[in-house]
Specification:
Number of strands: 13
Order of helices and strands: EEHHHHHHHHEEHEEEEHHEEHEHHEE
Structural class: alpha+beta
Number of domains: 2
Strand order of the largest sheet: 10-9-5-6-7-8-11
Number of helices: 14
Largest sheet: 7 strands, antiparallel
Length: about 500
């Protein structure tokens, strides 16, 4: 029949074909946009990981930067590490340019890889043993000479590559980059740096990893597979040393509980502590992004290649941070070791929880054989989801009657026997807890959640002691990086510092 072919009207068939071509064209344009976006996001992630990791590793074992703020270190970092990272980012424009011969390119790549390997091998030999490294002083001759010669050369070459995509100094500058990093790492290393040769090599590998990440960010537009492979290896190569630095004194001090330091403005926390957490997050993000980009294109998720996705890497990075956080902050503790000159003979803590609000009062009874006796009172009204809260302190004198009752209770067999009651923070919406400790015995807890009723004599003594006249109050601030969820009854009783919560039982350090 006229106007028909294969039983389909010709105009309709034409429209079907045209719409199919239009859909394919749109899908093609969408794929191109997604690929470009994935390359841009990958380069940005690698650059961020390089920048933050370089600050962290530069400040972590650098005695000269230990107490300085970011505003003090920023100019120094821009000169010493920012310019070399800028050159590493711009160098692929020259190395993978169309005018570069393949044999020459392979030779330059091999020479740079060889210099990096030699530097990693030699670094432990000169950095160790501790205290005998002649380059440790930042004012040694090697440091200013290296900065004056190499940094301007790298800066000029980087600018030429970024704006002209060529530079006669690029190859020479790339060769000088490795001796420069070698001397910089030696000159800024803490003289009290203690590690085995293997971990010292990992430290230097972490010191170099930002340069590799910056190079990978610049190479994505020219050699994507090579760039993502370098990013993956450099990110994985930097993680062992970061893990070791966190685990070697994990119980006494780690990057998370440093934020529990009382009375410290966050701006004045150690520089490495403020950058270690984003450094780990970005390195984990860069690692997973590199793995995703190296997956086969045929692997798809919702009709789009999995290799072009970024959200799984973001989710993996948050998961790493969540696991690290959960293992670092519990139980509540402040980094460092503090030994009190006098510990109370008897303690009673009363905690009332009403919704998100806590009202805590701790009474501490002190007495000695020389006749000295005193009452110490600490209290707070903290809330969940609150980082900083105020602790009130006051002291009072015990009457002879109260002192006699406290002594009798401290010597009673009912409270000095070594029973242990499971101790958990109150989590019910409305709850109440009583916690009692006698010197030399375990802490006893009586809460509405465990169904235990406090002895009447403990409650009576608490109220009588609380009514004792006291001196004027003083205030101090406490912080909880868990926003109130880590602070527990033992912390309320004064077990605040790491040596109060963590101990070595011969099989390693444990915290409780």
């Amino acid at each position: 029949m006229a106007g028909f072919r294969d039983g389909v009207p010709a105009p309709r068939k034409f429209l079907t074909l045209a719409s199919s071509l239009l859909v394919r064209q749109k899908i093609g344009h969408l794929s191109i946009i997604i690929i470009v976006q994935s390359k841009t996001s990958s380069a940005l992630i690698y650059l961020l990981a390089a920048s933050v990791t370089s600050v962290f590793v530069f400040a972590r074992d650098n005695l000269n930067l230990g107490g300085r703020t970011w505003s003090d270190v920023l100019p120094l970092w821009l000169v010493l590490l920012g310019i070399p990272l800028l050159f590493a980012f711009a160098y692929p424009r020259y190395l993978f340019g169309s005018s570069f011969q393949q044999n020459h390119r392979n030779l330059v790549l091999f020479l740079n890889a060889l210099l990096a390997a030699v530097a990693i091998f030699l670094f432990p030999l000169l950095a160790l043993p501790v205290g005998r490294n002649s380059f440790l002083l930042i004012d040694s001759l090697a440091f200013p000479i290296g900065v004056i010669i190499v940094v301007p050369l790298l800066f000029v070459a980087a600018l030429s590559l970024l704006f002209r995509q060529r530079s006669s100094l690029a190859t020479f500058a790339s060769i000088l980059l490795w001796p420069y990093f070698f001397l910089l790492a030696l000159c800024t290393l803490d003289r009290f740096f203690i590690a085995t040769p293997l971990w010292t090599a990992f430290y230097f590998l972490c010191f170099l990893s930002p340069a590799f990440l910056a190079f990978a960010a610049g190479a994505i537009a020219y050699r994507p597979a090579l760039a993502h492979s370098i990013a993956l290896l450099s990110s994985l190569g930097s993680l062992p040393w970061i893990y070791w630095t966190e685990s070697r004194s994990f119980a006494l001090e780690n990057s998370w509980i440093i934020f529990n330091l009382p009375g410290r403005d966050l701006r004045y926390l150690p520089l490495y502590a403020r950058f270690s957490i984003p450094a780990v997050a970005l390195l984990a993000l860069a690692t997973v992004v590199a793995i995703l980009r190296l997956l086969p294109v045929q692997w798809q998720l919702r009709r789009l290649p999995l290799s072009d996705r970024t959200w799984p890497a973001v989710a993996a990075s948050f998961l790493v941070l969540a696991l690290w956080f959960a293992q670092s902050v519990m139980p509540y503790r402040i980094p460092g070791a503090v030994d009190y000159s006098d510990w109370p003979v008897l303690q009673i803590l009363h905690v009332e929880k009403r919704g998100l609000q806590f009202h805590e009062t701790c009474l501490n009874v002190y007495y000695r054989r020389d006749g000295y006796s005193a009452l110490g009172v600490s209290a707070n009204d903290r809330r969940l989801f609150q980082y900083r809260f105020s602790q009130r302190h006051s002291t009072g004198e015990l009457t002879p009657a109260l002192l006699q009752r406290a002594r009798a209770m401290a010597q009673s067999l009912d409270y000095t026997k070594n029973e242990w009651t499971p101790l958990k923070p109150l989590r019910a919406w409305n709850a109440e807890g009583w916690y009692f400790r006698v010197e030399g015995s375990h802490l006893l807890s009586y809460t509405t959640e465990n169904g235990a009723t406090p002895p009447p004599e403990v409650v009576a003594l608490f109220h009588d002691l609380e009514a004792t006249p006291r001196s004027s109050e003083t205030h101090s601030d406490l912080e909880d990086v868990c926003l109130g969820f880590c602070y527990d009854p033992k912390a309320g009783l004064g077990y605040l510092y790491s040596n109060h919560r963590c101990f070595n039982d011969g099989h390693g350090t444990h915290c409780e």
